[in-house]
């Protein structure tokens, strides 16, 4: 009888263990993200209405509300709340310290219209990605000026006006972290000082530590992140890119040589190592242009959120200095075309690299491609402000831009790439430059990503894409190995960066102008107009 009882207990224990294992499924985490707007970070709203402001009775300025995506994390044993920008264009999580020195100046603060516009245009000309052009360590020479910044040094405010606040709290408006208040915090005293700079001119400097992070109802232990005690950014950042782009590996100025750099487990990697997800992967759903929320699925995909078949393309290396390993989440953009008025016109047929950056509000591409695209929409160019003005008659269904990624076609309504106010439409595509890449580069921000369902497989260095479907329906599947139901794109095996150039393809004539009385039709940009005032903010919930 005793034997039977022991056997029965053992069987019961085994059954309970099996039930517990089953209960652990599914192995994914859903991170909700919120889309917010505001002409400054302390004026958040859910309105996205660009407007003309009259200044001094003469100058008209188009103020486009900055779009950013954020999500909330709980840090430490006492669950300190902080909103972070989820950024595929960087790889580090950093948050402002509760006593951080905040240096920030809004581009709208200047009393001079000319200075204000200069600041705004300077912002829009640079996306929110890690500034590799200035921050990449060079084995053959000394670090750049930006690399020489330390947490204890004075931080230059690149791209900002001179009226920066001193010791204000703008950078802690949406949360900060006090390590002394968390009993679970561990200072990483052996790590170098944290220092990072983004291409939009913002910087952050501080120190490294580990603590528990709670989101989606799940605790993630011993997550490495930086605490910034000096920053010119209004946003904490959750970088979820490749580990090789981490500040400890590529941006730190305290390393004497590349042999001293290292990578660590950032948040997606930590989720995998703790068994919370099965693969280092996630899918991004930004939802429609007017929607206020989206999501990131770590370790899973949602089959309800796309149409057709998910197709794979490789993440490509374009910075040869780093042992031919990809640093950023970029693929090859094989070609582009535009559609409208019954016409289909190719504007680029030569491949170039494209970075998917959820931390950038707008998109950037080689000048030759952008010029050809704009001319086919009869756009007028302002040499003063570096923007294209499009007749608002094009701002309606039926006019599209198609992006071709090795055979994957993603169609973007032209209206998603325009900002309209009082019959003036500004094209939110801007010229890109890169001195590090051997070929021209494009950066595809939120105005592109809202039209694509993108799955990032960081374990296998591939990205899957399909046209997006806007729906609240869910059909979630865990990614256990390769991306479920995904197939190689037609040009997967032939994708190469060696042939990547930005030769545009001119058309014999632009698309026919829609009928109507467009406010900008056939007109150049008067010098008295101030057509711009875009401020690129990277928050992501963006995600």
Give a short summary of the structure.
The protein has 543 residues and is mainly β. It has seven helices and 32 strands.
Mind explaining what this structure looks like?
The protein has 543 residues and is mainly β. It has a single domain (29-488), classed as Acid Proteases (Cathepsin D, subunit A, domain 1), CATH 2.40.70.10. The protein is 12% helix and 33% strand. It has a 6-stranded mixed beta barrel. Mean pLDDT is 75; it is low at 18-23, 38-65, 105-125, 133-167, 252-256, 498-502 and 518-543. Residues 69-466 form the Peptidase A1 domain.
Number of E-type strands: 32
Helix content: 10-25%
Strand order of the largest sheet: 4-5-11-6-10-9
Reported by name, the CATH topology is Cathepsin D, subunit A, domain 1
CA-atom Rg in angstroms: 24 Å
The number of helical segments is 7
Q: Give the helix/strand class.
A: mainly beta
Overall geometric form: globular
CATH class: Mainly Beta
- Number of folding domains? 1
Oligomer: single chain
What percent of residues are in strands? Answer: 25-35%
Main sheet record: 6 strands, mixed, barrel
The name of the CATH architecture is: Beta Barrel
